[in-house]
Design a protein that fits this description.
With about 250 residues, the chain is mainly alpha-helical. The chain has two domains: about 1-160, Pectate Lyase C-like; about 160-245. The protein has helices at about 1-20, 155-160, 160-175, 180-200, 205-220, 230-245, and strands at about 115, 130-135, 150-155. A three-stranded mixed beta sheet has the order 1-2-3.
Length: about 250
C-alpha cells in the first residue's frame, strides 16, 4: 500500500507541479492527519519511536522531534515548519510536498529519504545531516530552487550548487599534492569547467558537463598510476554530484 501511495503522490506532484512551475511545492486539497490529538503543533515527541507511522497531512509545526525514530515514516504533505528534528532518524522517510521551513535538522539522518517538492527554506544546519537522500525540485534553505531531475546526494552538496562544489573539487585536487604535470592538467580542466558554468547560467549546461566528464576521464586514466584508488574514488564521487546538478 505504501508503495502504491508513493507512486500516486509522485504522479500528483509531477502533474500539479507542472502547472505552477518546478520548485514550488503545492499542498493537495485533500487528506487529513491520522491522529491529530497526538500529532499537533508544538507536540513533544522527543525520542519517541514513530518508525513506519503515517504522519501524512499532520501539522507538527514547532514540534519537538529531536532524537525521534522516524524510520520509513510517511510525512507526505506534512507541516514540520519550525520543528526540532535534531538527531532524528529520517532514514527512508517520505517527505514529498513536506514543509520544513525553519526546521532544525542538526545531525538528522536523511539516508535514502525522499524529498520531492519539499520546502526547506530557512532550515537550520542542513550541512550537518547524515546520509544521501533523493532530491528533486526542492526549495533550499537560502531560497534557491533545485531544478527538475532526481539527485542522490548529501544535503550539504545538493543545496550548495555546482559553482561552490567546483571550488571544493579544485581544493581537493590541490590538497593531494600530486605530481606537477598531473596537478596542472587536472586544474586546467576544472578551470575550463568553471568558465563553462558561467556561460551555463544562460541556460546551456551541456558544455560544462562535457568538460567535467573530460576531467573525470583523466582521473580514471590515472587511477592506480599517479592517483590512488582512494583519491580517484573521492574525485569521481564529487564529479558525480556536480554532474547530477547540471
Amino acid at each position: 500500500m505504501r508503495s502504491m501511495r508513493m507512486v500516486f503522490v509522485l504522479l500528483l506532484t509531477l502533474t500539479v507541479g507542472s502547472l505552477v512551475g518546478p520548485g514550488h511545492p503545492v499542498v493537495a486539497a485533500f487528506g487529513e492527519c491520522s491522529d491529530p490529538t497526538t500529532f499537533f503543533p508544538g507536540a513533544n515527541l522527543s525520542g519517541v519511536d514513530l518508525a513506519g507511522a503515517d504522519l501524512s497531512y499532520c501539522d507538527l509545526s514547532g514540534a519537538d522531534l529531536s532524537g525521534a525514530d522516524l524510520f520509513e515514516v510517511n510525512l507526505i504533505n506534512g507541516n514540520l515548519s519550525g520543528a526540532d528534528l535534531s538527531g532524528a532518524n529520517l532514514t527512508r522517510a517520505d517527505l514529498h510536498l513536506a514543509v520544513l521551513t525553519g526546521a532544525n535538522l542538526t545531525g538528522a539522518n536523511l539516508t535514502d529519504a525522499l524529498l520531492v517538492d519539499a520546502n526547506l527554506f530557512g532550515v537550520r544546519r542542513l550541512d550537518t545531516t547524515i546520509g544521501k537522500a533523493v532530491w528533486s525540485r526542492i526549495i533550499c534553505p537560502t531560497g534557491n530552487v533545485l531544478p527538475e531531475g532526481f539527485v542522490y546526494a548529501m544535503a550539504s552538496d545538493v543545496c550548495q550548487g555546482p559553482t561552490l562544489l567546483m571550488s571544493q573539487l579544485r581544493a581537493t585536487v590541490v590538497g593531494y599534492n600530486l605530481q606537477q604535470g598531473l596537478s596542472n592538467s587536472l586544474d586546467t580542466k576544472l578551470g575550463l569547467v568553471e568558465q563553462a558554468l558561467v556561460a551555463a547560467n544562460t541556460g546551456n549546461r551541456a558544455d560544462a558537463a562535457n568538460k567535467l566528464q573530460a576531467f573525470n576521464n583523466e582521473v580514471e586514466a590515472q587511477r592506480g598510476e599517479k592517483l590512488t584508488d582512494a583519491q580517484a574514488n573521492e574525485l569521481v564521487a564529487q564529479v558525480t554530484v556536480i554532474l547530477s546538478l547540471l
